[in-house]
Amino acid sequence: MSDARTDFEPRITAFVCNWCTYTGADLAGTSRLHMASNVRLIRLPCTGRIDPLFIVKAFERGADGVIVSGCHPADCHYTSGNYHARRRFAVFHDIMEFIGVDPRRMTFSWVSASEGAKWRDVVNEAVTSVRDLGPFEAYRALAPEAERLA
Amino acid sequence: MSRIGVFVCHCGENISRTVDVEAVAEALKDHPGVAFATDYKYMCSDPGQALVREAIEENDLTGVVIAACSPHMHEKTFRRAVDQAGLNQFMCEMANIREHCSWIHEDRADATAKAIDIARTIVEKVKHNQPLETIRIPVTKRALVIGGGIAGIQAALDIADGGHEVVLIEKEASIGGHMSQLSETFPTLDCSQCILTPRMVEAYQHPNIKLYTWSEVESVDGYIGNFTVKIRKKARSVNEDLCNGCGDCQAACPVKKIPSEFEAGLGKRTAISVPFPQAVPNIPVLDRQNCTLFKGRRKGLAKEVCGKCKEACLKGAIDYDTEDTFVEEAVGAIVVATGYKLYDIGREQPEGIKGYGEYGYGEVPDVIDGLQFERLASASGPTAGAILRPSDGTEPKTVVFVHCVGSRDPEKGIKYCSKICCMYSAKHAMLYKHKVHDGRAVAFYMDLRAAGKGYDEFSRRAIEEDGAEFVRGRVSRIFRDGDKVKVWGYDTLNGEQVVIDADMVVLATAMRAQDGIRELAQKLSVSTDEHGFINEAHPKLRPVETNTAGVFVAGACQAPRDIPESVAMASATGAKVMSLFSADELEREPAVAIVNENTCIGCMRCADVCPYGAVEQREICAVDGHVCGHVAYVNPGVCQGCGTCQAVCLSKSVELQTFTDEQIYSEINALCAWE
Amino acid sequence: MSDERFFISESDLRALAADLLATGTEVIAPVAVDACASPAAMASSACMRPGLEPEDLEYRALTDAAELDLARGLPILSLKGYFLPEHEALCRWKQKGIAIEIEAVPTEFAPRVVLAAKPCDSAALAVVDEVMNWDYKDELWNGRRAATTIINLACPVIDESCFCTAVGAAPDAIKGADALLTPVKDGYVLEATTEKGHALVEAHKARLSPAADALTAGADVDRAAARARAAANLEIDAGSVRDWISTHFEDPLLAQLAIRCNGCGACSSVCPTCHCFDIVDEEEGVGRGTRRRCWDSCQASSFTLHASGHNPRDDQHSRYRQRINHKFSIYPLKFGEVLCTGCGRCTRVCHAGQDLVEILQAIDIAARRPDEAEAAAPAADAPSPVAP
Amino acid sequence: MSETATGAKTSGGGGGGGGGGEITPGVKELREIARELLEAGDVRVIIGWEDARRGARPVFVTDPAEADKLIFDARCVHNLVTYLNPRRDHVAELGKIGLVVKGCDVKAVAGLLREAQLGREDVVLIGVRCGGVLEENEMPAAVTLTPDNVAPRCYGCDNREPALVDHLVGEPQPEPPRPAQTIDERIAALEDKPLEERWAFWTEQFSKCVRCYACRQVCPLCVCERCVADKTRPQWIESSPHARGNLSWNITRALHLAGRCVGCGECERFCPVGIPLSLVNRKLQQIVAERYDYTVSDDPEQVAPIGDYRLDDEQEFIK
User: Does C278 reach chain D within 8 Å, measured CB to CB?
Assistant: First the structure.
């Protein structure tokens, strides 16, 4: 396992809001800020739209880590979606940790439309820490026999 | 079964440089449900769009994925194209393989793999897209303009002349902004006041313009076409309706030695005062910090220690007990024109900016900044236009002008060029020579940037006709030497050190974003760059729009701008606002939530979290007509599509159109590690 | 030789199990699982108590003959899961462009042996064989049945919830099995009844000796006693019950008997004869997935939910009635077998107090002695539903 | 410790110890009120507990004459509020309900009221003063509560004098004994283990799940007509009971109860495979208590923590 980690490239699914983080990621692009290529974005209107089931499903589908990112408090395009999201994720974060999921596999962040550089850092940090943790074999091992053989 | 078309754009070389676009198209051909996939140099070009339209017809596609730039860039473009081909526009989605891929990665293999994933993800989403109709929302045809400088005034006038009401707010006591402080303006040397004042008055008297001075934006709610703005009217202590601007209060005020902000500290003002004679409105403000009466109150003295202005005011317009008041204005568009401030050289500097202690500003009275020189040169200024140095009021025979003080100096924290300094320093040299014929004007510059109509001619004139000496090089130190100001500089062209015994030094200090701009930006949910200048939506194609629909930007709050540019931007925002107001309704994406009445149990958790109060409770009846329960109902007119309701719905009985559970599930599914 | 009875000592029986394991044959048998040995101990409050060591009994594939537990009661779950797993793949699919490939699953299985099965559990398999081979022959079920040799262990009758004899089974029945072990002094009497049974006996002759008549007689006495114990718990006429239910579909009694039910469906999970399954397609990525069947329960409202949104069994008492109806009337009328072997698991697992012994008693009375019904019906206090 | 002492001495609950049918003043009162309500036609049915072949169990009394079937003692563990759940059509059909409730059960009624799933006027609540219940109901007679047999959830009961009820019967009861190990202690023990062990523990537990959904069916607050677990388009939760689908289901069940669970423990009691669900539920209560200072009460006006927010909510876990 630890040997595998050396050349292991994590797959990370990111759930981001359209107005802040997605736009911030656009800005990172227009500013040509280079970053790790392990992260795949899924655009949502608001972090308020994100159901913890999305994250669970991402793990089911083999993600080694997830990122959830949206507008800073008080910046929500919809005024309060991120506040509701914050509580939802707090509970989710704690319960996942309770059942033994390493919280470092779940990055939550606020990245505004003007924080292209911060987005790059969030991405790079998430990739590094998940790379250190190695593949999320523990979760994949839950797959039913038939699937694992396939 | 879906028949999706995938169109991969090279974006010239912006994408193809790092992403193997052919490989992406190839990979997508095998993707379940993909009926057509190809790549093209410029998808957004006419032939590119035509290619999409033809492919839709020839392969009767049920959905379209454009793998190109950010949806924020070209989604509209392609939805229009798809629509023309007879496919519902919402069956088209963008896969962002430029901003989110080719521009941020170097390794071609990685970038290509990622681009394929991104395209697959969006293909999976589109498979579950539904044909939808746009939603129409009414527009409040009133505009808010924040900032009463030349840009704000221009924008307000353009919109008002267009027949729409404008609310113009200015945080100072008078509109006019920095331009009202200037003496003469480059490159024509016409008097700033002479061209500005009429505009100020016009704005003040315009039937469509509602002016709030000494006021600031408290909060902004709502969205394009429907903003509600709360305005804080700061306590003025003067009743604007009663005051007739006679100035008796000013005359009566015993506190006369307060450095005047308008005179850049070179002149004095009273505690109750109008900032300058031509102020609009010509109504004074009582400066409670410096007022004797309020000092007394702060000390908690039993009886009022002053009150002379009140006694002097025959109109009884003065009221010491006014407090900040708030007014709400409903507007459909907002123009931000809050302008700039000068680099406050040598004094306390914000985080990361070092300042120029070595230039002696603040200690050496005869080292001044550009605005102070403007006041010296201004006919209405403290010296009535005579160039006299602050220390002893004598006429300086040698004046040194230093460019780029603060600007273009990453060491000191600001890397950008303030753009106007070359021109105004040349102007200053010129004005000085016009007034002091035997005087010597020396300017130290890095590069002479005089791009602009008549600009280069202007700066050449300063050198060739008025004999200003331009030395290419930086100044290392400025200090007092007897009654002289010693300037140590370096001439990089002759490669020699230059030491000048000057009588006065003028520093062309950098232009910086106004204080409080970040707070304001947050209220408007627009973004700012690292220096606090407001970000435009697109540097080239949408220079006066912001990331927030309905909020526009003009003048020096977006970047260092000179007057012509600020005015041009202002008129541009005017045009933008006018076009926004040209229709009674706005079209909005049908991103609204819909409740499934069969499974909703009416717990109304959705209503608790809806930021817009868009969720109502509705009774439902059984077949026999009797009320058998209640369910939630989302009012599509009010819903803004955040989807928070859907995330809290335990039974998944509410779906947000354009971001349905099926769409998101399919996207997650597409990122399966075992693909 | 068909009715030949052998003696096998306890140690030889374990040795037999060991022999089978040695030859690589899977051996499924009751195994005591110490609830406190697993990490679950952290959770089980029982494990926190001094002196208490709760043990669960489960049918498990032996890893060592020593695990074989011959002394105890009824495993939590029946044998059902070894023939109709909680979930199993029926096929997998892959989509490329527009084409779809189907990947079948094997329906042949390696031979295996079940040791010390409870007679009520083996009997249940025989009952379910009927429906699994009626309009469609279920290869997966039949494949596993064919590959499995089952040896019952005569049951001492567990508790007051047992009623096998009332539904045509017995604590010493060989129904659905291939051989039977009856405990006697120092060992067991073994008798085989089927091809597979005899084959097994032949293969392990070495460990068997002819059983002395005294032994077999003693065994028969014990078996009779066990039958009597079961009969004492409940005696009904399954035929009358069957006919009464089929003619009293709307009878309030059936609703009354259902009143406590929460529809949790635990009863059908633990039931050896409940065999209803759902078929689901589970995606494993884009255009790929597995079609699985998994246990379903008539107690779930989604069980009969139509695509239209209409649900013919939209309240719990109609779902509970269905359970009773199917087991004691519909199935017997169609296949001549009661879909119940009286193991009593449903009663034991029901924390709402639904008690099948009591319920069958009530129906039997209603069927045979209607005059007593009023007095005797246990849930007579529960009213008949009134229209809203 | 003193609690344990008193607890050990006391009989379980208002019914008093002793034999199954022992008639304490509290039970007398209970039967009296039930009879009156039925005779007056204020309710069509009283749902309470009775003594049966296999211990105490729910009973539905419609005939005033049968009010004497009602009992209350430490075996009356069931949370009868589950019969008020809107999904229980067959109970609703009986007409207006009079429900016998313990202090803990009442919180579930408040939950249903809070979520508009019940009208206060639709039910008459008869509260019984309770000194704690046993872990199991299946014994012929109530036995004395001891640290070894008391339901751990009873420890530190905070609703011993329920306010929401219409009637409150029985004499005040002593504190329930402290269990050999409290749920909080078990959680703490679990949290002392490294992540890997916790993961091993929970995945083993959840892999036992047969997806009978008993936990959902008996939960008084699982009120959905169509559970997300039964939704197939999309299928967020795989329906076959393999370890992966089971984990999704159990995480979802837990999250859906965050800030709603009243800790009655029926889900765990009904679970045929013995998954320690009360550890998860209790953990959720701890989370909302620590983060949002929220403890579920029997006040229907109380605002649930999820669906609410404060500008200054902790966000230490957010970058």
Answer: yes
